[in-house]
Amino acid sequence: MSKKLTKKIYVGDVPVGGGSPISIQSMTNTITKDIDKTVGQIKRLEDLGCNIIRSAINDMDDAKSIPIIKKNTKIPFIADIQFDYKLAIAAVENGADCLRINPGNIGSEIKVKEVIDCCKYYNAPIRIGVNSGSIHQEYIDKFGGVNVDSIVYSAMDEIKYIESLGFDNMKLALKSSDVNMTIAAYKKISELTDYPLHLGITEAGPGMKGIVKSAVGIGSLLSQGIGDTIRVSLTASPEEEVKVGREILKSLGLLKEGINIISCPTCARTKLDLIKLVEEAEEKLDLIDKNINVAIMGCPVNGPGEAKEADIGIAGGKGYGVIFKKGKVVKQVKENELLNELLKEIESL
What's the half-sphere exposure (Cβ side, CA atoms, 13 Å) at 233? Predict the structure, then answer.
């Protein structure tokens, strides 16, 4: 896929835009000033492959916790500010690597200018967030409600004002819980500006519903070369958000870290408990750091044949199975030994 080349900025030491790898973000759900819990959660997210973390800064104690949190974690820290410009300034002064604000929520132009001046001094980028719930009323009136045009041109208004203050160290997010509206809004603003774009479906929802909406929305845009960072917003743990984000990138070939599992959906030809086998394999393969494709198939038809592009795989039969590499059978083993033999072969690659 051809990716649009956007302006490159840095969030801490992570490059965003300008052809850089797509970064995965999440947001802590701990009380930020509860440093032990916040640091613990960030460390778990780091281990799962999160590249940038965001935390809500709700009071001065939260802001003052930032230096300690950063000292004990590795990934860049974004301070999420809703309304109080003084908290935005305090967060940057305490070492936040980036601010997430909606300038329209900050208040007067004087307050916004103070925040921008602080970010200039500390060389901290800003993520401008405009979603379907934070559109300027004048654009809702002008374009007849909450829609693609009102979101996009409300965002462009924010951008032009901040640019007028001599600041361009920013990335953009235009989110909606409506997948089609989100896709259209990002496509439109991508044609109007070269700032890097942070993708997501806001308030995507719980479990499977949220995963599907996020995968469709984020994946559709990434497949068209649009987007520089992503966050999967689920009513679930941040750990799940990162796992889903990684799978979205891996499915598009935008992340080539870790094992990619290929498995068939099962049918009447399947003679073993493939669903259980895949679940067990997924748990064990997550611990192996190899960039390979592993196929776990239910029968010889879907084994070396349909999965011949896999680096290695297994195909089940009745009481036995085969191990194959690049479509060629290399070993026949008993059904109850299939997974262990597969793991041994993978370790030897």
Answer: 16
**How many CA atoms within 13 Å lie on the side-chain side of 218?**
34
Q: Which CATH superfamily is domain 9-251 in?
A: Dihydropteroate synthase-like (3.20.20.20)
What span, in angstroms and rounded, lies between the C-alpha atoms of 78 and 83? Answer: 16
pLDDT at 257 over 90: no
Q: pLDDT tens for residues 168-194?
A: 999 999 988 899 999 999 999 999 999
CA-to-CA separations, 5 to 54, 145, 191, 252, 253, in angstroms, rounded: 25, 32, 12, 18, 18
The CATH class that applies to domain 260-348 reads alpha beta
The alpha carbon of 342 is separated from its chain's Cα centroid by a whole number of angstroms, namely: 30
**Residue 95 to residues 129, 137, 223: CA-CA distances in angstroms?**
21, 34, 35
Is the distance from CB of 118 to CB of 81 less than 8 angstroms?
no
Q: Assess contact for 288 and 257: CB atoms under 8 A.
A: no
pLDDT in tens, 198-245: 999 987 677 889 999 999 999 999 999 999 999 999 988 999 999 999
CA distance 290 to 74: 23
Q: Indicate the range of 25-39, 232-246, 328-342 predicted with least confidence.
A: 328-342
Domain boundaries, the chain: 9-251, 260-348
Identify the helix (H) or strand (E) that includes residue 333: strand 328-334
| pLDDT band at residue 303 under the 50/70/90 scheme | low
